[in-house]
Amino acid sequence: EPEVTQTPSHQVTQMGQEVILRCVPISNHLYFYWYRQILGQKVEFLVSFYNNEISEKSEIFDDQFSVERPDGSNFTLKIRSTKLEDSAMYFCASMNLGQGSSPLHFGNGTRLTVT
Amino acid sequence: GNSVTQMEGPVTLSEEAFLTINCTYTATGYPSLFWYVQYPGEGLQLLLKATKADDKGSNKGFEATYRKETTSFHLEKGSVQVSDSAVYFCALRTNQAGTALIFGKGTTLSVSS
Hints:
The structure holds two protein chains of two kinds. Chain A has strands spanning 5-7, 10-13, 19-24, 31-37, 43-50, 53-57, 65-68, 75-79, 88-95, 105-106, 110-114. Chain A is mostly beta strands. The radius of gyration of chain A is 13 Å and the shape is globular. Chain B starts with a strand and ends with a strand. In chain B, strand 10 (86-93) and strand 11 form a beta hairpin. Chain A binds chain B through residues 4, 31, 33, 35, 41-45, 48, 50, 55-56, 91, 93, 95, 98-101, 103-109, and chain B through 31-32, 34, 36, 42-46, 49, 51, 89, 93-106.
C-alpha cells in the first residue's frame, strides 16, 4: 500500500537555525497538510496546501513557517529561525479527494529537537 | 467553532476487558468523524470512520457509531489485547473541500496481560 514518507526521522538543530522538513506524499494525492504534536499534547493543524498554494493555515503557522512543493513529489515545511518551543513531532499528511469523508494519510513524522 | 472532546486518559485495562473511549464533537453541519491510532514511535493511522448519522465504522474489532442526537462517536472494543496499547485520537472534518482534520487531545490506552 502506498504511504507518505518523511525525512529525516529525527532532526536536532540549534535555536535560530533554519530547518527544512521533507515529505513525499502519496503520488496521486492532491491535498497536503502539516501537523505538529508537542510531546504529550494534541495533534495541531498547521497548514494545508492544494493546487500549489496554501488553502488554509492556523494561527500557529506564522511568518517563521513556509511550505513548498518544489517538484512533483516533495512537499516541504521550512522553519526560518527555530525557537525552543518549535520542538515537536511534525507530521505530513496527504489526501486524494477533497470530500469530507476522505481520510488523511499520515507519515511517521519527523521529531524536531531545538536546543 | 468546530472541536472534538475526548475523555481524559490514561485508560488502563487488563487483556480481554471491554473498552470505551468517549468522544463528543461540536461542528456546523454534518461532519465526517474518524478515529486514528498512534502506536508507540509511529505515525497516525486511520482506524475507522463514519460519514453520516447512524453510520457505524468498524475495524480490527473496534467500532464507533455516529450519533447525531448526542453529537458523539464513542470508540468501543469488546475484548482488548496488549497489542492495542496506543494513543487513540478522535477527529472530525467538515464537508468543505480539502478542509483539515480537527483532532481531540488523544487518549492513551495501556493494556496489561
